[in-house]
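Record type: monomer structure entry
Structure origin: computed from sequence
Chain ID: A
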Amino acid sequence: MLPKVCFGLQDINNSFELLLMLDYGIFYEFIPMDAYDGENSKAIPLSEVQKNVNYALVITTNGGLWRYLIGDTVKFTSTDPYRIKITGRTKHFINVFGEELIIENAEEALKVACKKTKAIVTDYTVAPVFMTTNSGGGHEWVIEFKKEPSNLEYFTEVLDQTLKEINSDYEAKRYHNMTLVLPKIHVAKKGLFYNWLKQKQKLGGQHKVPRLSNTRDFVEELLKLSVNQQSASR
């Protein structure tokens, strides 16, 4: 069993930022997510990090861990002192086209789109749409709403525009639809995500819906289950 490791502490009230603990026997390395390739990734030392860049965190400790990729992604909000915020997980991101979409981006875009359309989201997942000879790439969202937007087209436009505003890499890939086209949104029937987790025997607090994926595995399973449920209800 791996020893428990604490690498940050909250030193500012009502803040999600963490002060990086530098004198607790931990050696830190960071992998820029735009070059992330799992254990084969090239890491940089703490002295080379920059603010507002998304990194995967690697730690070595005097308790026995050696270059352990913990699975969290972080951004530095300050380098004097070193202060970070958790932005997501290394398994949950989309970077098929260099757009570097992370959960933090997706959550913020959904928040803005819901506010402007008075919608409420229950669950969602996002996957890439790969390029073909006849069409560009994109992102496909499956969203289950507690309260659907009255205008899904406007919801999609707000979601897309917000992603452009908060993620310059996404904006660059969306420029004139050259690499990414407008996101495609499927409105899921109520209970689809619950039934999907149940089918996979992953109900319970320890299992969560994967929000972002670099593959289409989860989306394809959900869409297939949705079709089967619709056929069974007829």
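Annotation 1: The helical segments are 103-117, 152-166, 168-174, 192-199, 217-232.
Annotation 2: Residues 120 and 212 are 19 Å apart (CA to CA).
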